[in-house]
Write a structure and sequence with these properties.
heterodimer; A: mainly alpha; MetI-like fold; two-stranded antiparallel sheet; globular; B: alpha/beta; D-Maltodextrin-Binding Protein, domain 2; 2 domains; six-stranded mixed β-sheet; three-stranded antiparallel β-sheet; 13 helices; 40% helix
Chain lengths: 686, 317
Amino acid sequence: MIEALKQRKYLQFILLLLVFAILCLIIAPSDSNYLWRLPPLIKQLPFIINDSVDFAMFEWMPIDVYDPDIEEYEKKPLLKEMTRVSSGFILFMIELIREILLGGVKTIVTFMGWDWATENEWARWPALPWTIVAGGVAVLGYALSGWRLALFAGLAFTYIAVFGQWEPSMQTLSFVLIAAPVSVMLGLFLGVCAFRSSKVETVLNPLLNMAQIVPHFSYLIPVMVFFGIGDHAGAIATIIFATPPMVRLVLLGLKKVPPEVGEAGLMSGCNNWQLLTKVLIPSARRDILIGVNQVIMQCLAMVVIASLIGAKGLGNDLLIALNRLRIGLALEIGVCIVLIAIVLDRLSLAWANKQTDYFADLSFKERHKHSLIFGAVFFAGVALAGLGSLIFKEGFNYLYLIPHNKGITTENFWQAGVDWIWDTFFYSLKSFNEWLIVEVLLPVKNAYLSMPVVATFALTMGIGFIVGGIRSALIIGGLLLFIALTEWWDRALITAYLVTVSVMISMTIGIVVGTLCAQHPASSRFILTYCDTFQTFPSFIYLIPVMMLFGVTDTSVLIAIVVYSTIPALRYTVEGLHAVPESLHEAGSMSGVNRLQRWLFIELPISFPHMALGVNQTVVFALSMVIIGAMIGTDDLGQLILGALSEKNGVGNGLVLGLCVAFIGLAIDQVIRTWASQRKQALGLD
Amino acid sequence: MKLSKNKSVRAMMIAGCVSLLTATGVAKAADSTQPIVIPIHNWSSQIVMAYVLGGMFEKMGSNVEYVPADSQAVYESIRNGDVTISHEVWQSTFGKSFYNAMEKGGVIDAGTHSATTLEEMGVPNWVIEQNLCPGLPNWEALKDCHANFTTPDSDGKGRWLEGPQSWHGDLMPERLEALGLADKWTVKFAGGADALWTELASAKKEGRGTIVFNWTPNFTDADGFTFIEFPPYEEGCRIADGGDGKCGSPKGWLKKAANYKFPKTHPAAYTAFSKVSFSTQQIGEMAALVDTDKMDHKDAAAKWLADNESVWMPWTK
C-alpha cells in the first residue's frame, strides 16, 4: 500500500485532497478557533518597520547642514542626505536629456544657481524643433538598420508631434532614456554575477521575484520618502520593476551557451573579461535581446505609475484624461506610449544586431555619411523653424514646437469607437456578467474564504511535499505562515482566488493561441507585436471601458488581470516552440509522427523549460495586476495597499502588504520551479 | 556676503544635491529664487488652480515648478520639503493624510478657502426623475427602495458605491448599521474616482438606479446630482468619534497646506498664499473652463488669471 503510494503521485494527490476535505469539514469557523484562523501575532510588524524607516530617515546620525534660504543650520539625518545626493544625480541626467529635447533652465541652474538664472533671463536652453528630433531618429534608424526602420521611426515621431503630444512624450522619453539603460546595465551585471556564482543565483532569485511581484504601490511611499518626489523617484521605482526580467534572461541566455563555445574562447587565450564580453554575451545574444526588449516594455508600462510620484509626461496626462472619462484622449496618449516603446525597442535591437565591417576601406564622406545627413537634417530643421516663425505670425509656430493639445486630435474617433462597442455589446455582456458572478466567481470566492487555515496549510504544504519533498513543503509553509500571522489572511485568500482564476484563464488562452500562432512566422510576428503593444499599453486605459461594460465588479478586475497576464503566457509559448531545433522536427517527421503527435511529444516537451518560465511569469504578472484591480474596487490585499498611501504608518503597512502578495507568488514559484527542474532532468534537458 | 557664500558652497558639498545648487546673497526679506513646487493631481479644478497660483507667484517674481503627485501621498512630500504647497485639501478625503503628516512635523496649515465642500452619498438626478426611490433626497426613503439598486454581487441588497476604503474607512458601513439599513443595503468600495464616474455613466446608460459617493464642487454638478439628506452632522456623532453614527457628512472645509519652511524662504509668496481664498463658484469656473469648454489646463489658468485680476491682485499686495 505504502509502496504503491510512493510510486504513484496521483494517489498521493488524492490522499492529500481527502485530508484537506476532512479538515475543511471538521473545523468550525469561529474567530477564537486557532485552527480556523491563526491569531495576528505579527500585527505590530508594520509599525516596527515604519518606526525604523522613520528613525533611519529622519533621526539617525544627524549632521548640520546650512540652509541658505532660511540662513540657519539645520540638523539633517545622514541617510536622507545621501539618498538625496543620488536622486539629485539621476534627476540631473533626466533633466539634461529633457532640456536637449525641450529646452529649459534646470541644467543651467545646476551650474549657475537659481539667482543667476533668474537675473539673466536670456540664459535659457532652446528646445530642438520637433522636425530635427523626428529627422534625427529617422537618421539613427537608417544608420542602424536601413530605410524601413528610418521611415517607421520618423513617422512615429511625426505622429506624436502632429497630434499635439510632443511635450509630454519627450518628457516621458527623457525619463525612459535614463531608466532603461540603467536597468539593462544593472540586469546584465547581476545576471553575469548570478551566472558566475550559484550562491548569488540562489540569493538573487527570490529577490528578483519579489521586485517583480511586490505591487509598485507598496514601494511608492518608501521610494518617495527615501528619494523625494519627481522624475528621479519615478525612474528609481521603474528600475526596481524593470531590472528583474533582464537578469533572468541574461542568466537563461548564458546558461544556454554550449560549454564548447566557452572552451574555444579559452583556447584562443581570452581572459575572463574578454571571455565574457567577446564570447559569452554575444553567444547569449538572443535571450539578452529579449531581456532588453522586456526592460523597455516594463519601463513604458511603469510610466503611469511613476507619474503618481512625480514623473512628468504622458503618464500624468493619461491619469488626468481618465479621471474625466475622456477615453478617446487617453487612447491617443496610450498610442504615443506604445509608439515610443516600439521605436526604442526596434532601435535597440538594430543597434545590437549591427555588424561592424572592420575591413571596409571608406572615404571620409562614406565614414561620416550619417553624421553628415544628420547635420543636413539639423540645418533643415532650424531653417524650417525659422520659416515657421514667418508663416505662423500669431499663436504657435507649428514647425518649431507643437504645443500640448494643439495638434490634430483623433479623440472623437476613438471615443466613437468606444461608444459603439458599448452600445453594441452592453446588454449581451450584461447577462454573461451576471452569470459569471453568480455561478462562478462568488462560489469560488466563498470556497476560498471558507477554508480553515489549517486545511490551507495542509493542502499547500502537501503539494509542496509531493512535488519537491520536505524542503519545498517547509519553504511554502514558512511563506504562508508569515501571511497567516498578519491580520490580512482573509484578504490574501481573496487575492489568491483572483489570481488562481485569472492564471487558469490566461494559461489556457496563452497555450492554445500561442501554439496556433507559432505555426507560421507571420502569425508569430503578429502575436509578439501584440504582446509588446499590450504590455506597454497602460492598463489604466482599458480599465474604464471594462468597467463600463462589466461594472464595478470582480469580472472587471478579472478581465483587467487576464488581459495583462496572458502576455507572458503567449510570449513564452511562441518563443519556446520556436526554440525547438529544426533537426528534431525533421527527425520526428522521418519517424512518421503526425502534426498533433509532433506537438504533443516533441515540441511541447522540448519547449517545456521556456514555457514553465511562462507560467511563472503569468503568475507574477497576475499578482502585479492585483493593485490595478484594486483601482476598480476589490476587497483584497490590493485595496489595502492603495489605502496605505494615506495611512500614518503607510510605509510599514504598504511594505508588509506587498510582502504578503510577494509571498503568495514565491510559494507558487517554489512549486512550479521545482516541478519544472524535475521535468527537465527527466527529459535530459538539463 | 562672501562668507555666507562659502558656507553655502560647503553645505552644498555636504548636501551634495546637485539640483539644490544655489548661490546666496539675497537680501533677507526678499523671496528666495528657489522654485516653489506645486503638485498636480488628476482633477480639473486642482490642476487649473495649480497653474493659477503658479501664475500668481510668477507675477510676484518667484520661480515655480509643477510636479505630478498622488493626491494622498503628496502630504508626505510636503513634509519632507520636496513639494512646497498643496492648495486643495478636502476635509473628508485628505483630512486624514494631512493631519497625519502634520503630526509627524513639517506641514503647516496655510488657511482655508471660503468654498465649503460637501462629500456625501447621493444619486444622479435621473434616479429621482424616474422615481426609482420615491421620497429622495430624504434618507428615510431608502428603507423601501433597495430592490431598484441591486447588483449581481450585492446578495439581493441595494448597493452603495463608496469611494476607496482609504478615504473614510468604515464610515459608510457603520452608518448603514446605525440607521438600521444594513439588512437592505450593502457598501461596495470602489477603487478610485474613475470607478465612481464610470458607474454613473453606465448606470445612466442602462437607466438603473445607483447610489454613489460624490462631492461638490465637482464636474458632475453640471449633469445634475442630488445628495441624500441624512440626519444633520453634529460634532462627535460618528461612531469613530464615540457617537451613535446616525448622521450624515458635515459641510467640509477646503484647506491649504504648506511646507514649514515656506514662510521663511518665500515670505511674500507665503503671505499671498495664505490670503488666497477661492469660493465654490470660482472653483467651479476653473473646472468648467476645462471640462465644459475643453480648454487646456494651462490656457484655462491663463484665461482665468486675465479675467479675474481684481480677485487675485489684492492677495499679492
